[in-house]
Amino acid sequence: MNFLNVSKVHHTYFSKEAATEALQDINLSINKGEFVSFIGPSGCGKTTLLSIIAGLFQPTLGTVKIEGQDVFENDDLSIGYMLQQDYLFPWKTIEENITLGLKLLKKENHSIASKLLKDVGLPPVEKKYPRELSGGMRQRVALARTLAVNPKILLLDEPFSALDYQSKLKLEDLVSEMLKEYNKTAILVTHDLGEAIAMSDRIFLFSPRPGRLYKTFEVPEEIRNLTPFEARGHSSYSSLFQLIWKELESLEQ
Ligand SMILES: Nc1ncnc2c1ncn2[C@@H]1O[C@H](COP(=O)(O)OP(=O)(O)O)[C@@H](O)[C@H]1O
Ligand SMILES: [Mg+2]
User: Where is the ABC transporter domain (predicted)?
Assistant: First the structure.
């Protein structure tokens, strides 16, 4: 059985003035432990689909199931969401931010937070406030918070796009390494084709609005086994980049 199943999903946003058709007949499935990316022109419905998978709202038509359970009907499914903005609470300490989703004793919170900080490569900044950290450090905290609730699946919506290039490359490696270590299933939305290739097992390319699944690409084995940073230097990376780039260009015409 597939881990995640998206079946016949359509979505239209309704407002007083207009109806915006965002997604049309999306069918896809993802295996446990797989890392996939959604790419496609801006406005093609990537964030909409991710929100539907997260169970944030119900699609106009169709279903999303994780391990056979409907994500919208089941409140117990734990889903980790990481966004472009870190959404850390400025008035809470790093420790409080990381353990936000946990209902534990103070003492346990402390040991979980300090272990996760170490795991994401940060020094002991538990007692600091978000404003005292750089953008890259805050995204590491956001990753720690996402992992703290031990989610079944991680949904990453352009989590690196606000970072400088060097921090972005470092964070890609970190996220990739941690998800492998914890054997997590993940979906990354990105407008950076290189990032999608370097990080994913498979890439789903969506057509312009209303978004439809246009093509799926398998990332070759020899890149999948490398870190994202190493993958960017592999010859198979460049050829896949060229191939998908042409498809993207043809879609934008
Ligand atoms: N809450 C909303 N109400 C109305 N239209 C929306 C809403 N959210 C997104 N849209 C529209 O739906 C389409 C898909 O948006 P989105 O999922 O954010 O695309 P992407 O993430 O691929 O850029 C866009 O045309 C966008 O303007
Ligand atoms: Mg988006």
Answer: 1-233
* Protein residues placing their CB within 5 Å of the ion ligand 2: 47
Give nearest CA residue, ligand 1 atom 1: 13
How far apart CA 151 and CA 4 sit, in angstroms, is 14
- Domain with residue 61: its CATH number is 3.40.50.300
pTM for this structure? Answer: 0.92
Q: Is 209 in the pocket of ligand 1 (CB under 6 A)?
A: yes
- 42 touches ligand 1 (CB under 6 Å): yes
Tens digit of each residue's pLDDT (9 = 90 or more) over 54-82 = 988 999 999 999 999 999 887 776 788 88
Judgement on whether residues 61 and 159 belong to the same structural domain of the protein: yes
In a domain, 22, yes or no: yes
Radius of gyration of the chain (CA): 18
Is 46 close to ligand 1, i.e. is its CB under 6 Å away? yes
